[in-house]
Amino acid sequence: MNEVKLKNLLGLAQRARLLVSGNFAVNEALAAEQVKLLIVAKDASRRTQENYQKIAVEKNLPIMFALNKDALGQCLGKGERTVAAILDEGFKSLAIKL
């Protein structure tokens, strides 16, 4: 996976308001069934990774373990982020191709 391209794609999705980040925002989007792709930081705790993996299986969502918490937050113009969710099919397809 090309991490630079992924960071650029996530930043673009953030600016287009087609991505949410942070546990609270992602859980709200999951409840509203808006999430197309979950992205969990590689250095998230094992419990967090397992929790989102379980949610992805239950909701039949693709999940990606990529970047670290600092890089994930930085490409979104925010502080550290453990999880983000893409809300658009187009951005989802591009992220999966990377």
Can you walk me through this structure?
By secondary structure, the protein is of the alpha+beta class. It has five helices and four strands; from the N terminus they run αβαβαβαβα. The chain has a four-stranded mixed β-sheet, with helices on both faces. The mean pLDDT is 95.
The low-confidence parts are: none
* Shape type: globular
Average pLDDT confidence is: 95
Count of alpha/pi helices: 5
* Secondary structure: helix percent: 40-55%
What integer value in Å does the Rg equal?
Answer: 12 Å
SSE pattern, N- to C-terminal? HEHEHEHEH
Strand segment tally? 4
Structural class: alpha+beta
* Strand arrangement in the largest pleated sheet: 1-4-2-3
Strand content: 5-15%
Distance between the termini: 5 Å
Largest sheet: 4 strands, mixed
Properties at a glance:
98 residues; alpha+beta
Quick overview:
A four-stranded mixed β-sheet has the order 1-4-2-3, with helices on both faces.
Task: Describe how the helices and strands are arranged.
Layout: H1 3-15, E1 19-21, H2 23-31, E2 37-40, H3 46-59, E3 63-65, H4 69-75, E4 83-86, H5 89-97
